[in-house]
Amino acid sequence: MTAPEHDKALVGAYVLGVLTPEENTATETHLESCPECRRELEDLRLLHEELGEVPPEAFLDGPPEGGDLLLQRTLREVRGITSRQRVWGGSLAAAGLVAVVALSVGAGVFVGNQSATGNGGVAAPTASPLPSGTKHAANVDPVTGAHLAATVIPASNGWVKLQVQASDIAPGQRCKLFVTSKAGKQEQFGGWLVGPNATPGKSITLDGTALMSINDVASVSVVNDQGQTLVNTPV
Amino acid sequence: MGIAERWSRRGGRSAGDEALIRSLYEEHGRSLLAYATRLTGDRAAAEDVVQETLVRAWKHADDMVNNKGSVRGWLLTVARNIITDRARARAVRPTEVAETPTTPPIQRDHAQGVVDSMAVLSALNTLSAEHRDVLVEIYYRGKSVTEAASTLGLPPGTVKSRSHYALKALRTAMAEQPAEVTR
Lengths: 235, 183
Prior knowledge:
The complex is a heterodimer of chains A (235) and B (183). With 235 residues, chain A is of the alpha+beta class. Chain A is 31% helix and 28% strand.
C-alpha cells in the first residue's frame, strides 16, 4: 500500500518530530491531499503515545553501578526465605522437619523478610512477607536430640510475637517455652505436655507473645519442669 | 529463554534460586535501579524497591517467565507497583495510631498475575536492531537527528527515514502481539 510518494512524506518521522521545518511543511501539504497518509498519521500518533508507557530507563543494560551490595542483600533475603520454607514447609511432614532442622544445626540464625503465617497459628509459607526485622532460628540439642525452630516477629510498642515448632522431646515431659533477653531476663511464653505416645519427628506448633523488644531477644528455649533446658536456639 | 530453562530445573533449588537472582541483577539491575531512583527520588528507597522486586521475581518466576511481554517489562511494572503501593500506604496510614497486633499492615503482593503493562517494550524487542536503536536514540534518549546520526554512524537523512520505518515496523509488531491473557 505504500507508494514512493507516500514514503516521501515520512509520516513516522513527522510524528517523532525529527523533520526540519521545510520537511514538516511538505509533509503537511501531502497529508492534506492524502486520506491514506492521514489514517496512517492517526495510527502512528496513537502508537507514539504508547511509547510513553515505557520509561527511558528500560533501555539501560547491565548491573547497577557501584558494586553488588544490593545483590548480596537480595541473596541474603532469599536465602532466609528458603531456609524458613525448608523448616516450616515441612511442618506437616514430620520426617521432613527432622531432616530439615538437622540440616540447619550450626547454621544458627536466619534473618530476613520471612513468609507470613495464617491466623490459625500454623506456620506456612505464603507470598506475603512478615514485617521486616523478623528473625528466624533453629537448632537441635546435641544431648537431648530435641528440635526447635523459632520465628520472632517484631510488634509495635516493644513486644514480640513468637512462633515455634518443636519435636523429638521425650514423652511425658512438661515443657515450658522461654524467651531470654540479652540481659539474661527470661520470660515464659507458652508450655505443653508431651504426650506419652509422642512420635519422634512429629512436631508441635505453638504461638505466643512476650513483652520484650526484638532487639533484646537473645535466645528461645524449651525447658522442662525440672528446670533442664531441652533445647535452646540463639536468635 | 535462558531464565525459563534455568528456573525449570527446580531440582537444585537453592543454587537455581541464586542463579536466577544473579542473572536478573546482572541483566536488569541498572535499569530497575535507575527507574526506581527517578520515581522515588531517593537512592536508598530505590534499592529497597529493587530488592523487593527481585524477591518477587524469584517467588513468582513462573509468572514472570510466562508473561506475554518481556521480563524487563514485568520487572519494571512490579517495581512501579511497589512504589505506588508504598506511596499509597504512606498517604493512608494515620500517623498517630499504632499498628495493633490484630490488624497487621496489608501488603499486597500483586507480582502474581502481573500483566506487563509495557506491551510496547516487548514489541520494541522484536524489531531489528537498526529500527530499535533509532527509536531508542530519538524517542527515549531525546537525541536530535544530528546527535543520533553521530551516535549511530549514519547520515542524518537515513536517521529520519529509518525512524519512520521503525515506527511503522513497531505498529506491525504491536498488531502481531498475542492478546493479553486475563488471569
